[in-house]
Design goal:
Fumarase C, Chain B, domain 1
């Protein structure tokens, strides 16, 4: 893993890139507000302070919030208004959300503050910058966001820490009182000024952060799916003729073309494939799970590309309500609605479930003597005495069933809130949470296919695997022994999961093929 300890990502030079989000969120890279960002925030703050002094009510500055926006708040109570907002909205419940998700959320909120459209003081944004750089991560909970008016509860737990309240995890992962941990790290909390509480919590940053992280994970897993599919095609004595570029060009989806090119590269030079090209094979066509692998993995790639387009637009956005426009107007808007992000999060969950479903079908073919073309039942050493990979496929099937449930869209649901003021919500946070679970499931499903296909490739000896698939098998064999009598299988599955999730399986293939698409 690269060392990000000395890396700094500038905030305020334009939209963040996907890699920058991942480096800060997942790998702990530091951040730095640029001078331009500080100047933009200071300029918009002046306009907010003008409105705060005006007798005319301005939402979020001199009024209550949501359904309580009709009350004009006396100037003497406005500091209390911001504190009360954050404290009351920090109402999450359930398990803690992963640190990388919270850091992504913090980074993206800071990025919006840096645009100068929120009216937050530079000193307040600097506290958020300081928390990220000290690797102090506020505790955020699983439940609380409806994905409209942004991820209110999750962001409120972060805003609570900016005020020096609540709890955080320090750089060592220890649970600490926020004020104590900040003092030790030299980060000074702030007394929130008018509008700042609202500006800190009114964004879609949680769901967007999870989308960016999910895209990074999914792109690796789709390459892995091509690797495991190639291993299965090879070990099941399938044909690679269907991956011919001329055939793929008849249906010019870019993802399909990329997946087919990967399969050709991975299978190149296979002695197993060559062994049944002599006319002795009587099969006319392979099963869909082999023959249509590029069509399914390719469609998932194209879905990921669409989701990435949405994420790029969101990274270039300034989501808050109200916002300070370039001409000085402060206007209410609906840009905090999470529908654009929620839709693609749900779309990705569908693609993840389908890629996993096809992988499980390939695994199942290995275990059935009627379909595995000469391999022992369940790939067992002594079928009947040994069960081989019988129950590994059960585990895989159980995960696939769960993935189908997780593919049910969250964004089609809406529960009215705030006395019907917020009468339609996106549920984008929920869509993001289930996608993260789905990606973990896909990694495990592909790991079982890899484990099973590797065993089948070994059982085809003395026929030689393709150099690329052989490299993947060799990488697995560093932690998992080859075919033999039944062993404790769960640790071997976990070894394969690590090989998949770390990218080591793809890296092994790429030592032969070069970079896969």
């Amino acid at each position: 893993m690269p060392d990000y300890d000395n890396e700094v990502v500038d905030i305020g030079t334009g939209p963040l890139g996907f890699d920058e989000v991942v480096r800060v969120a997942r790998h702990g890279a530091a951040v730095r507000l640029t001078d331009d960002a500080v100047a933009a925030m200071a300029a918009s703050r002046g306009r907010v302070e003008e409105l705060a002094e005006s007798p005319t009510p301005a939402y979020g500055i001199s009024t209550g919030f949501g359904a309580l926006a009709t009350r004009h708040i006396d100037p003497a109570l406005r500091a209390k208004l911001q504190k009360s907002l954050v404290r009351s909205h920090a109402a999450g419940s359930g398990p803690e959300v992963e640190a990388e998700v919270v850091r992504a959320l913090m980074l993206l909120r800071l990025n919006t503050l840096a645009t100068g459209h929120t009216g937050v003081r530079p000193t307040t944004a600097k506290v958020l910058e300081g928390l990220l750089n000290a690797r102090l991560t506020p505790v955020v909970h699983e439940y609380g966001s409806l994905g409209c008016s942004g991820d209110l509860a999750p962001l409120s737990h972060v805003a609570l820490a900016i005020m020096g309240e609540g709890v955080v995890r320090d750089a060592d992962g220890e649970l600490r009182d926020a004020a104590e941990a900040m003092k030790q790290a030299g980060v000074e909390p702030v007394e929130l000024a008018p509008k700042e509480g609202l500006a800190l919590i009114n964004g879609t940053d949680g769901m967007l952060g999870m989308l960016v992280l999910a895209l990074a994970d999914l792109r690796l897993l789709l390459k892995t799916a091509d690797v495991t599919a190639a291993m299965s095609v090879e070990a099941l004595l399938g044909t690679d003729a269907v991956f011919d570029p001329a055939l793929q060009a008849l249906r010019p989806h870019p993802g399909q073309a990329a997946s087919a090119a990967n399969l050709r590269a991975i299978l190149r030079g296979s002695g197993i494939m060559a062994s049944h090209r002599d006319g002795s094979c009587t099969r006319v066509q392979d099963a869909y799970s082999l023959r249509c692998a590029p069509q399914v993995a390719g469609a998932a790639r194209d879905t990921a590309d669409h989701a990435a387009t949405v994420a790029e637009r969101e990274l270039a956005s300034a989501v808050d309500n109200p916002v300070v426009l370039a001409d000085g107007r402060v206007e209410s808007n609906g840009n905090f609605h999470g529908a654009p992000v929620g839709y693609v999060l749900d779309f990705l969950a569908i693609a993840v479930a389908d890629v996993a479903s096809m992988s499980e079908r390939r695994t199942d073919r290995f275990l059935d003597v009627a379909r595995n073309h000469g391999l022992p039942a369940f790939l067992a050493d002594d079928p009947g005495v040994d069960s081989g990979h019988m129950i590994a496929q059960y585990t895989q099937a159980a995960i696939v069933s769960e993935l189908k449930r997780l593919a049910v869209p969250a964004s089609v649901d809406s529960i009215p809130s705030s006395a019907m003021q917020e009468d339609h919500v996106s549920m984008g946070w929920s869509a993001a949470r289930k996608l993260r679970r789905a990606l973990d499931g896909l990694a495990r499903v592909l790991a079982v296919e890899l484990l099973t296909a590797a065993r089948a490739i070994d059982l085809r000896a003395p026929l030689l695997a393709a150099p690329a698939t052989g490299a993947v098998v060799a990488a697995l064999r560093e932690s998992v022994k080859g075919p033999g009598p039944d062993r404790f299988l769960a640790p071997e599955i976990e070894s394969a999961v690590r090989l998949v999730a770390s990218g080591a399986a793809v890296a092994a293939a790429e030592t032969v093929t070069g970079p896969l698409a």
